[in-house]
Amino acid sequence: MMGEFVFNLEACARPNIVALQPYRCARDDYKDDGSNTLLDANENSYGPSLSTDISVDHENNGDTLRLAGLNRYPDPHQIELKQLLCDLRQSAGSQATLKPENLFVGVGSDEAIDGLIRCFCIPGVDKILVCPPTYGMYTVAAQVNDVEVVKVPLEVEGESASFDIQPAKIQQMIGGDPRIKLVYVCSPGNPTGKLVDPARLKALLEYSWNGVVILDEAYIDFAGHDKSLAHWVNDYPNLVVMQTLSKAFGMAGIRLGFAFAPSGIARLLNNLKAPYNVSSLTSALAIQAVSKAGLAVMRSHRELIVSQRERLVQELSKIPRVGRFLGGYDANFLLVEMLDGPKSLGGQPDNRTAKVVYSQLAEAKGIVVRYRGNELGCTGCLRITVGTEHETTKLLQKLEEVFQETP
Ligand SMILES: Cc1ncc(COP(=O)(O)O)c(C=O)c1O
């Protein structure tokens, strides 16, 4: 990394957040180790009002699913879960060790997306930068916080459009506007399904500015083995890497997202969050998912998804009115063009066709995909999630039917 680096956390984060004294509870002083009578938090000592008692611990393959104690507030710090997440993303090639103090855990990555804006952006004054086409929540969270959004598109122009970030253009923009505090980069991108080239990200990170680069790796486990750059938070003072259990781990329902960050940034995020943001049920299930047995399940499901993704690419390509796949093949979805005529006759990507296919698939065939034709560089595109073998078979069959019925 460069010697002269202007990033200064105290000067970059909002002064009220830097000065914030986090909420403390009695259990920060006296741990809940089972030996104390707990009369500090106005809980109900008689237990949860559940007619079916799910709140008992379960043994499973040597791991314990800890569901007891639902009448108690959850652990605000989640050190056990954080350590498992560090072990998961510790890279063999990295000198520095990821530690629980490098982590924020929250209610999906959506909480981290919002928390970072609240941490760094003064409402009505500061800005974030996004690279469209990209995940819509960055802009929604900015708008909720009255924070302006500046855009530097992915490289979407021309036949050889890479759908990758353009570091020189981003640098130009952040260099010219000190009110830009955060740059959100999605890798693999949504809706592009494309892993950002690490060399481009490096070029962006080696640029000296007083702001933070946020790398959203929600889909990283579909991109291949050990592709996460989470360990880079030890190399760059202004990098945050977000991940989630909602995708490869198949646990969107528990709402568990996390962000790796240099410890100073992680501390601010942890100071600003609500103390009990992660429920006991969520953390118990998350711990199972990232323990040895859970990881084995995730990996086997991922193999199945990757093989269906390959099948979908092959089979969709044979359909005359399906065009190019845009972006990449690094996530659990494909971004694919619908054409106004057969490709052999020069059919072109077409939003009208994509909308008809989208609504016919849903209304007549019971299959819901995502219309993305209005996103920058995505004319005529649908984003299709890779499902099970059976779902893929059904999708391919119904898509052919829709094309037969669509003029
Ligand atoms: C790129 C990206 N980031 C984050 C999320 C949200 O993840 P979570 O469920 O953890 O809030 C999504 C969900 O679709 C996503 O596509």
TrEMBL record:
Keywords: Amino-acid biosynthesis, Aminotransferase, Histidine biosynthesis, Pyridoxal phosphate, Transferase
Pfam family, one: Aminotran_1_2
Molecular function terms, GO-annotated: histidinol-phosphate transaminase activity; pyridoxal phosphate binding
Transmembrane stretches, start-end: none
Gene Ontology biological process terms in this record: L-histidine biosynthetic process
Annotated pathway: Amino-acid biosynthesis; L-histidine biosynthesis; L-histidine from 5-phospho-alpha-D-ribose 1-diphosphate: step 7/9
Domain of life: Eukaryota
The Aminotransferase class I/classII large domain, residue ranges: 38-399
EC number: 2.6.1.9
Catalyses which reaction(s): L-histidinol phosphate + 2-oxoglutarate = 3-(imidazol-4-yl)-2-oxopropyl phosphate + L-glutamate
UniProt cofactor(s): pyridoxal 5'-phosphate
Family: Belongs to the class-II pyridoxal-phosphate-dependent aminotransferase family.
Protein name as it appears in the record: histidinol-phosphate transaminase
Organism: Orbilia javanica
Lineage of origin: Eukaryota, Fungi, Dikarya, Ascomycota, Pezizomycotina
